[in-house]
Design goal:
The chain is an all-alpha fold. 78% of the residues lie in helices and 0% in strands. It folds into two domains: 42 residues, no CATH class; 203 residues, MetI-like (MetI-like fold, Orthogonal Bundle). The longest helix has 35 residues.
């Protein structure tokens, strides 16, 4: 049975990696065609991505939006999760469930809701609308990781600190926050990566007034294919893998994702 398991996982791994291999081959194709295996080898499409403002500016927009949205998501999730865990009042639990709601809905529903809101507030197309919309939509991710961290925190540590006269603020600063650091980073990374790749909410809130990279790619596909898109896709993949590897290094990744603690 061991060899059957190995064959199964090898097939699954190959199936998952095959699209990445194809994208890699297309991104280094010397000719400007969607063709695999590549005809020749060239890094010109990566160079064009960094040198052409038509591509680099949307990439910069995506990075700024993702960073700010991830910070907003963590800023909302941390006090929400801590309030539910520390004080256990009913309304805090309701707020916690509301924090999970946006990610439970299809993104198009959230996008339409955001579109209607910003139109009513006469703010459609302004850069901060996509930042706030992404931040609220992605709050679920850091909320989940931080809640997992709080549930694994030994309550006796809090009781001991309180018994010794520590205030609630001191307990949070000296015990809770240092313990939650890997969970905060994990939630931030998850929100950042998803914001970086999100299309429908960005399109509904800022449209063409401030193109993010996913919006730019989808808009460009209407006029034809460019290997720059394959180069961008591979760079996105490398960024995501690098960030998730960082999360794995700073903490136990299965536990960060909610797995039971191993004995």
């Amino acid at each position: 049975m061991t060899w059957l398991r190995r064959i199964f996982f090898t097939v699954v791994m190959g199936y998952l990696l095959l699209p990445i291999i194809v994208i890699l081959g297309v991104s280094v194709n010397e000719r400007k065609v969607l063709f695999f295996p590549p005809e020749g080898f060239s890094l010109q499409w990566y160079v064009e991505f960094f040198q052409d403002p038509a591509w680099f500016v949307p990439a910069r927009n995506s990075l700024v939006v993702a960073l700010l949205a991830a910070m907003i998501a963590v800023s909302i999730a941390l006090p929400l999760a801590y309030g539910v865990w520390r004080y256990r009042v009913r309304y805090a639990r309701v707020l916690w469930l509301i924090g999970l709601a946006p990610f439970a809905l299809p993104p198009v529903i959230t996008a339409l809701g955001a579109l209607a809101l910003w139109i009513v507030l006469q703010s459609f197309g302004r850069p901060y609308t996509v930042v706030l919309s992404h931040g609220v939509f992605l709050t679920t991710l850091p909320l989940a990781t931080i809640s997992v961290g709080l549930q694994s925190l030994n309550p006796q540590l809090i009781e001991a600190a309180t018994t010794m006269g520590a205030t609630g603020r001191a307990v949070f600063r000296t015990i809770v926050l240092p313990y939650l650091r890997p969970y905060l980073i994990a939630g931030f990374v998850f929100a950042f990566v998803l914001s970086l790749n999100e299309y429908i909410i960005a399109y509904m809130t800022v449209g063409f007034t401030m193109e993010t990279l996913p919006v730019k790619i989808f808009n460009s596909l209407r006029y034809g294919y460019s290997p720059v898109m394959a180069a961008i896709s591979l760079l996105f993949f490398v960024v995501a893998v690098s960030l998730f590897s960082l999360v794995g290094r700073i903490g136990d990744l299965p536990q960060l994702l909610g797995a039971e603690e191993r004995g």
